[in-house]
Amino acid sequence: MYKYFKLITSASLALCLLTFASVAGTKDDVVKRGSVNCGVSQGVPGFSNADAKGNWTGIDVDVCRAVAAAVLGDAKKVKFFPLSAKDRFEVLKSGQIDVLARNTTWTLQRDGGLGLEFAGVNYYDGQGFIVRKAAKINSAKKLNNAKVCVETGTTTELNLRDYFNANKMKYEPVAFTKADEAVRAYDSGRCDAYTTDRSGLAAQRTKMKDPKEHLVLPEIISKEPLGPVVRGNDENWLNIVRWSLNAMIESEELALTSANVDAQKSSTNPAVKRMLGIEGDTGKHLGLNNNWSYNIIKQVGNYGQSYNRNVGPSTPVGLARGYNRLWSKGGILYAPPVR
Amino acid sequence: MTGFKRHLVRNLQLRNLLPQLLLIFLFIGLIYYFTYNAGVNMKARNISSGFDFLKTNSGFDIQFSLIPYSGSSSYATAYLVGLLNTLLVAFFGIILSTIVGFVVGISRLSDNWLLNKFAKVYVEVFRNLPLILQIFFWYFAVLRALPEVDKSLVFFQSVFVNIQGIYVPKFIFTNFHFIFYGIVFSILSIFFLNYFSKKIFYEKGVIVPVFKISLIILIIFPIIFALLGKTTYIVEYPTLKQNFGIFNYIGGTILVPEFVALTLALSMYTAAFIAENVRAGILAISKGQKEASKSLGFNNSQSLKLIIIPQALRVIIPPTTNQYLNLTKNSSLAAAIGYPDLTGVFAGTSLSQTGKAIEIIFMVMVTYLSISISISILLNWYNKKIAFVEK
Amino acid sequence: MNKVILWSKQNLFSSWYNILISAFILLLVFYSIPKFVDWALIKATFSGETKQDCKAGGACWVFIKVWFEKFLYGFYPESDIWRVNIAFTLLVLTIATAFLIRESYKIFVVLFLIFIFPIISFYLLSGGRFGLSYVETREWGGFSLSLILTFFGIILSFPLGVLLALGRRSELFIIKYFSIAFIEFWRGIPLITVLFAAAVTFPLLLPANLASDKLLRVAIGIAIFESAYIAEVVRGGLQSLPKGQYEAAKSLGMGYWKMNLLIILPQAIKTVLPGITNTFIALFKDTPLIILVGILELLGMVNLAKANSYWLGMAVEGYVFTAIVFWVFSYLLSLYTQHLEKKYSTDRITK
Hints:
Largest sheet of chain B: 4 strands, antiparallel
Number of helices of chain C: 14
Number of helices of chain B: 12
Strand content of chain B: 5-15%
Strand order of the largest sheet of chain B: 1-2-3-8
Low-confidence stretches of chain C: none
Structural class of chain B: alpha+beta
Mean pLDDT of chain B: 83
Shape of chain C: globular
Order of helices and strands of chain B: HHHHHEEEEHHEEEEHHHHH
Radius of gyration of chain C: 25 Å
Largest interface: A-B, 58 and 56 residues
Strand content of chain C: under 5%
Shape of chain B: globular
Distance between the termini of chain C: 46 Å
Structural class of chain C: mainly alpha
Order of helices and strands of chain C: HHHHHHHHHHHHHH
Number of strands of chain B: 8
Low-confidence stretches of chain B: none
Largest sheet of chain C: none
Oligomer: heterotrimer
Helix content of chain B: 55-70%
Radius of gyration of chain B: 27 Å
Helix content of chain C: over 70%
Number of strands of chain C: 0
C-alpha cells in the first residue's frame, strides 16, 4: 500500500515539476521558430488584408514584416493570425502570437490592466461615423434615435456610448463580433450608421455595394492612436518591436527608401550611417545584428513608403496623410532618435 | 444497511481501492497543475484574478435588454441582462418548437399523402442541416431581405415589419398585478378541481369535464380580478418618425431581427426532432389499446383523452424535455449573429473588455450547468410521477 | 386514370379539411419550386471567372467554382493538396473494404482505422517528416477540416465514452460518482462554451509551450464533449442487457475487463449502434461552430468569401452550397443509421 502511495506522490510531483520549464524570451522563440507570429485583423483593407492567395498587405502587416526583417533578416518570415477584436488580447496573452498589429488603440487600461505593452503608434486615428447619403444628415449631432452598427469588444463601442451620452442623444447599438458583419449589416440597412476609426471607415467603404452612396461625417469623437502590442513581460522584445517601428519613421525623416538605401551606404551623414548599421552599435542594445535597421529599410521600406503603398491617396482606401505626416512636415509623427 | 456494509467492505479491498485512489490523485494533480500554471501564466502576463470586476462599470451599451441597463451599470448587471436574454429566447423557442413539432409530428401520421410527405421533407431537411447554417440563413438571407424602414410591410395598421425589426403594439397596463393574482387564483382552483374530480371519479364513477371547466376558470377569474382591481390598459402603437433622412419607429414593442432569426432557427430545428418524438410516441401505442378503449364504450374524444394521449405523452415527454434542454444550450449560438445573450454579452463582450478569461468562462459554464441540472431534475421528477401512475 | 382519381380521392381529398390542406401545399409547391429551379438552374451562370460574368439574374455558381478549392481545403498550400486527397482516398477505400470483406475480418479494418490510419494521415497532412513540408494546423480548413474533426472526434470520444459508461455503472463508489459528474458536466454546457474555453481559457491553464495549437485544443474539447453523449448512449445499451449475461460471464470465471470486453460491450454496443451513429452525425453537424473561435471550415470559408470585396452579394449561393453538402452527408448517414436499426432489430427477433 505504502509503495503505491509513494509511487503516486512521486508521479504527481514529477508532473508538477514539468511545469517549471523556464519561460524563454520571445526573441529566442522567434529565432528558434524561424518566423514571427503576427496577429492581424480579419480583413481591413490597407491595414491588414489578405488576397485570395493568402498574401497579406497593409501598414499593420508592414510592422510585423519590419520586426521579421530586424530579427530574422527576412521580411517574409512572418506568419499571420487573423483575429477578431474580441479575441486579440487573449491570443496575445496566451503566447500564440508575438506581436499584435491589428489597428489596436492604445489606452491606459490596456497598457496597465491587461498585462500588455504598446510599442508605439503607427497610425494616429479618431473615431467617426459613416451614414448613407440618403439620410440627408451632415453631422453626428443629428444621429438621435439612430441604430448604430459597431464591432464588439473595441474601444469604439465604449466611445460610442460616451459620445451619445455627452450629447444627450438616444441610440441603439447593434454589436457584431466581426467588423465585416457590422459593415454588412450597415450596408444592408440594418443600421443607420456604422462607427469605427475613420481610417477603418475609409477602408470598409471600399467593401460596400456602392461606396459613393455613403458619407463620412465630419465629427471625430475620440483619439485613437493605433499601434503594435506585445506582452508586458519581455522588455527586450518590446524594445525590438518599438525600435523597428521607430526605424521606419526615422528612415523617412532621413529620406532613406528601399530604393536608395544601398546608394546611401556611402553617405557621410552620421545619422544615416547609424541607421544603416555602419556606425555605432544600435544592434547590440537590442540583441540583434547591426544591420537590423538596414534590413527593415531595404525589405519593407520607410514609413512613408508603407503608408503610400497601403492606405495613401492613390490606393482604393485613399487616406490623406493628415496627422500622420512627419512632425517636420506638419504632422505629429515623431520618432525618438535611433542612436 | 447490510448491503451498504458489504459495499463498504468490498470497496475497502486493495484491488478496488487502488484505481479509485489513483483517480483521486490524478484529479487533484490535474487541478493543482492547472492552478499552478494559471498562477505562473497570470503572473508572467501581469493579469489580476478574482471576481472584483463584477462590481465595476461595464461602459458598453447593450442593444436589447429586459431590465434597466446602461453602460454605467456593472458587469454583474450585464451578466444578468445576458442571462435573461438567453432565457427569453429559450422560452419563446420552446413554445414555438412545441407547437410546430406537434403539428408536424401529427402530420407525419396523416392519411393525407401530401401532408404526410410534406412533414417528412420538413423533418429531413431541418434536422440534417447544421443549426448555425440555419441561423445564418434566417438572419442573412431571409431577414436581411426585408424592406427598408420607410417601406415597411404593414399588417392591420399596427404591425410593421422591416429590416430593422418587427414592431408590434405595446399594451401598457395599470394595476396589472390584479390580473396576475387572478391567474394565480385560477391555477390554484384548477389544482383543487383536478383533485376533487379524481376523487369523484374513483368514488362515484362520474367523469367531470375538467378540461373545459379549467379553461373557463382560466379566462374568468383573471377578468373578474381585473374588473375588481380596476385594471385598465392603453395600447401604444409604433409610429414612424423622420429625423432628416433617417426613418424610425418609436413606441410599441420591437422584436429585433437577431432575436427573430435566433428564435425561428432554434424552434424550426428543434421542432424537427420533437416531431419525430411525437410520431414515435403515438406509434408506440398499439392498436390493441385503441380497440380496447372502443370496446369499453369510450367515444373517440374520451379514448384520445383518457387512453391514447396519457400513454403517448409518457413516451413523448422525456425525449422532448431533452430537446428543450438542447434548445436552451443551443441558444448560445446567438453569439454568431450578435444577439446579446449570455454567451454574447458575457463570454464575448465582457470577456474582451476585462480580459478575465478564466472567471468569465467559469461563470458562464456554471450558469448553463445549473439551468441544465434544474431542467433535468424537473424531468426526473416528472418521469417518476408518470411511472408511479402506471403502477 | 381512374386509379389516379381514386388514389387522390382517398389520399388527398378525403374530407373538407384535407382538401384545404392539399390545396395549400400544392399551391406552395407550384409557387416555390419553379421559382427555385429558375434561380438555381435556368437563369444561373455556370461558366466564367469573375462576378461580372454573372449577368443572367439567377444564381452565380461561378462563385462556388472559383472558390471551390478554398471551400474544400481552406488555406492548405495549393501545391500540397494532393496530401489531403490521398488521406481521404485512403479513408474511403478502407471503409469500402470493411463493407466488402467477411464479418470476421472486419475487426482488423477497424483496428487499422483506429490505430494506424490516424498516424499515417497525421504525418501526411501535417508533414515535417519524410520529405513533406510542414503545414501548420491553422492553414487547414474548408470542408476537409470538418471531416478531419469528425473523424478525430469519433476516434477519441468513442473509447472515452465507453469507459465513462462503464465507470458510471461501476460498483466502485468514487469511480461511479466521478463518471456521473464528468458526464453530467459536459452534457450540461453548450459546445460553444467548450470552444471558447479551449480557445481562450485553456492557454492560461497550460505551460506556454504546450498550448500552442488552437485546433488541437478545440478538437480535444469537441471529442471530450461528445464522449459524454456517447457514454449515455452506451449506458442505455448496458442497461438493456439482461442480468443473466453478467452472471453467465462471471460463472465462467471471467474478470471485470474480460467480461466487459468479450461479453457485455459487444452486445451492448451492437444494440445502441444507431444511437452512436446519431451522436456522430450530431458531431459532424456541430463542426461549423468552430468559426466562433476563428477556425474556418466550409461555412467559415463561405463567410470569408462572401465578404471578399470582389464577391459581395453571394451569401445565398454560398449557403445553398454549404447546405447541400452538409445535408447530403448527414442524410446519407441517417439513412445508414435507419438501416442499422432495422438490421439489428430483426437480428434479435430471428435469434
